[in-house]
Amino acid sequence: MKKPVIEFQNYHFKYDSQKQPTLKNINLTIYEGEKVLIVGPSGSGKSTIGHCINGLIPFSYKGEIQGSLKIMGKEASDLDIFSISKMVGTVLQDPDGQFIGLSVGEDIAFALENDCTPQPEMVKAVKEVAAMVDMGAFLDASVHHLSGGQKQRVSLAGVMVDNVNILLFDEPLANLDPATGKHAIHLIDQIQKETNTTVVIIEHRLEDVLYRHVDRIIVVDDGEILADQNPNELFSTDILEKVKIREPLYLKAIKYAGGAITKDLEPADFSRFRAETFREQLRKWYEEVTLNEEPPEAEPILELNRVSFGYTPKKETVHDVSFTINKGEMVSIVGKNGAGKSTISKLICGFETPNAGKIIFSGQDITNESITERSLKIGMVLQNPNHMISKHMIFDEVALGLVARGVPEAEIRERVEETLKICGLYPFRNWPISALSFGQKKRVTIASILVLQPELIILDEPTAGQDFRHYTDIMEFLMELNRNGLTILLITHDMHLMLEYTDRAIVLCDGRKIADDQSVRILSDPQLIEQANLKETSLFELATKTGFTDPIKFVERFIAYDREGRNHGK
Amino acid sequence: MNKNTLSVRTIVAIGIGAAVFVILGRFASIPTGIPNSNIEVTYAFLALMAVIFGPVAGGLIGLIGHALKDLIFYGSIWWSWVVVSMFVGFLFGLISKKLDIESGEFGRQKIITFNLVQVGAQALGWFLLAPVLDIVIYAEPTSKVFIQGLGVGISNMVTVGILGTLLLTLYAKTRTKTGSLDRE
Amino acid sequence: MANEMLSYIDRTSPIHRLTGATKLVCFILWSTAAMLTYDTRILLFLFIASLVIFYVSKIRLRDILFVLIFILVFLLINNIAIYLFSPQEGVKIYGTGHVLVEFAGRYNMTLEQLFYQLNITLKYLTVIPAALLFIVTTHPSEFAASLNRIGVSYRIAYAVSLALRYIPDVQRDFRNIAKAQQARGLDMSKNEKFLKRVKNASAVLAPLILSSLEKIEIISNAMELRGFGKKKKRTWYNARPFQKRDYTAIILFVLLLIATLLITYHDGSRFYNPFS
């Protein structure tokens, strides 16, 4: 008989600050040594479940609890947060928030320090755990010299050092580039097998988590558990579609081709999935899809000509980068963390001045123009909307830039209202921004840039931290702006985004441009993928597995079909 | 906030508050054109933090933030002024309970209270404490340090009065519980 | 403007080998001595001693040149200000007035004034190196442990560590926010006129502050989840045990402080008067 480690029984929870309960009648048992994935759209309550398990509820977030939750057989309400933290180790989403020590060793030792562990013991334990997460060689490294993936591994070591029984991961993939995310999932798997800990992962990027085996998937929506089953069973239902969780792309392709997925085909694990079954169906679908090739307009709007830049004289962050963006294009700039993507965008907007090279906008050399001058042509939307919002009301926030430019009041009103309508924010115009969701805030920041009427906008990770529904909302909105003539440059490490929404992508690696091609082609080139920390798409593998001679064409058709479907769906 | 031991949240507020104090103190002060007197926006931030997190946090953010700023950027600690930062931070925090900014309400009455206290606190700090410490520690000439204190004090009072009030108002608004908003 | 920060410089020297706590205690003792005394002889001795300690620490001039220049410029301006405000301060202190150069009345340059200003300069020059040396020879990871060891509560000591940890993050956020707001026409940099800058400051401050408050929530949750504040005490991964040289250094500096106080105050005045 398996031993239950987490048991929710008729559990309800309501935050003090909210009217409606966030969790309703949760019944869930997780057994020792299991690996469970909790999925659900934002606001579904999946993070709240996590907070209940690690004790932040009720110790940090106050609210009303009904029913029972047992952790390792003990009623959670009888425990304090410290005893819970001895049993449940949590790896949070934001690696910078969780990494509180100045160096790797120090951060891993944090829990031991708080326990008054003698120093020699601490040093030994830290060494052992660091080796498990491949950070043994970096014990003295400063937090400021680590990548996002390394920080996350340190966070993991920092909870493992306490010999916890349960490891809880709250959106572990949110801040990682694709290859690093893949590595993280592999590492979690390996550690679970070695230590027989129970692993609970909360994440909405389903396909990425399923890179390694998962025992059960729990689907949460609107505070309730909709499904609690084995992944193979889950994929033979339409629950995921209903709650708007992105299914693995290979399964989506098969569904497009009219294939019926059943659990005995083992759809959850791509390496075992019997894709051959659908060979004929896929081929037939492939023949039917038409590609309407639009001749690309080729009037350049932005040109970078041999641009180089370094924050310090000794170290160059961007070397000799040249590319051209044409009017009306939507292009991705991709590459691993630290490849120079953000720096390029800062150079384009004039936040930094290149050491060498030229930046040309609509035929004019703007290399020496100030930020303010360039802001009339180029707008920049930062990744974190909270970094841009300084007003209380939506209207005022969007109007801010116009007010600063001394635009007459009547014109401000007109332009702001117009922009709010375009952005779907008009009904909310008199709302305080603090009442908006993360995705809506993002829209406000986009609106606050659009209102200045730039010809090109640059968005840094426009979909970071958003679930599939919000992701689709934002991207469809950007597509529409693009169709209306706005040129858009996206900085991202989201492969889906690049593949589905931007025909062309520029790949950076260590400050150099290593590719500038169709997104489909880039994601089919193993060498490029490796160099830029990207990840191959399962569509490509599906095509190869089912015997397509030109997998790239297959992927292209899938994207075209998918776009068509979205357009009709709207 | 917590009398006996500081809560974890207060500790973190002190740490992050000190970090922000350092950065604002170094990069966000605006010179007025008169030597040695800048618009130190960082004191508006200090006032906000002290009102949110209480006198102990206010005092420690002033102390740690100012000492670290001096240490990291100038390699030397100007003790007399560090003490004043701690002192005004602490005094700002004394009205934390009375203002109860978490209630989301920061009306005219509270704005007046806040400004009376901040002007009083800074008058004591900059007009009296700073010059006296400068004389005691560094034996600087009396007339010089009092005039200096007067200049810095007045400009900081104005800064906290305008920017501090603005920030507190904005913060209070983010605390408003939004129950029944309707689309129009 | 130099945007550089002083930080730990990794070298092998007897100064580096002392524990952070020792250096902190010595730094405090030294600062106390230098702040209390106004005796020219002691100031001179301390000044020369600090040069020797600097030499021993293997910190080179060019490592700290940018702050040094800043400090020297500051000293110059301060000296001019003192002369402008109080040209007869020296006469007041030392009781005599040997006029060297005649300007208009109260601005006559006296030997006493020059000597007084030399003292002030010397004083700053002895107070400054201690802090400078402390910051460049102490690993930041050792800061908190050191503060805790000399009696500061570990909670407050950890707040200092957090500040050091997040200063670069806050600096990065500040830059991004300021630039992004500038691109919307809200500039608080020196390109704008004074009043506009002040007005625009809130557009930069508000996002920085609100996102920092958010950070506080996340970090305190993370710390709580890892048992911070559970016990009355805590141990430190990076603490170093005291050794003989640490005790020696501390005893030496205590003696230095006592000697300074004795010599300075034995005649009832902080000032050494060569004129009487």
Written overview of the protein:
The complex is a heterotrimer of chains A (570), B (184) and C (276). Chain A has three domains: 4-247, Rossmann fold (3-Layer(aba) Sandwich); 248-288 and 538-570, no CATH class; 300-537, P-loop containing nucleotide triphosphate hydrolases (Rossmann fold). In chain A, helix 19 links the parallel strand 17 (456-460) and strand 18. A six-stranded mixed sheet of chain A has the order 6-7-8-3-9-10, with helices on both faces. Chain A has a six-stranded mixed sheet with strand order 16-17-18-13-19-20, with helices on both faces. The model of chain A has no long low-confidence stretch (mean pLDDT 90). Chain A has 570 residues and is an alpha/beta fold. The longest helix of chain B has 34 residues, at 142-175. In chain B, helix 1 (8-27) packs antiparallel against helix 2, helix 2 packs antiparallel against helix 3 (55-74) and helix 6 (108-138) packs antiparallel against helix 7 (142-175). Chain B has a single domain, classed as Arp2/3 complex 21 kDa subunit ARPC3 (Orthogonal Bundle), CATH 1.10.1760.20. Chain B has helices spanning 8-27, 42-53, 55-74, 79-93, 96-99, 108-138, 142-175; strands at 30-31, 38-39. The mean pLDDT of chain B is 89. Chain B is mainly α and 184 residues long. In chain B, strand 1 and strand 2 (38-39) form a beta hairpin. Chain C is mainly α and 276 residues long. Chain C folds into two domains: 14-139 and 241-265, no CATH class; 148-225, no CATH class. Chain C has helices at 14-17, 20-36, 40-57, 65-85, 89-94, 111-137, 140-149, 154-182, 194-225, 244-265, and strands at residues 99-101, 109-110. In chain C, a hairpin with a 7-residue loop joins strand 1 (99-101) and strand 2 (109-110). Chains in contact: A-B, A-C, B-C. At the B-C interface, helix 1, helix 2, helix 3 and helix 7 of B face helix 4, helix 6, helix 8 and helix 9 of C. Chain C: InterPro entries: ABC/ECF_trnsptr_transmembrane. Chain C: It comes from Caldibacillus thermoamylovorans. Chain C: Pfam families: CbiQ (PF02361). Chain C: One of its GO terms (cellular component) is plasma membrane. Chain C: It is found in: Membrane.
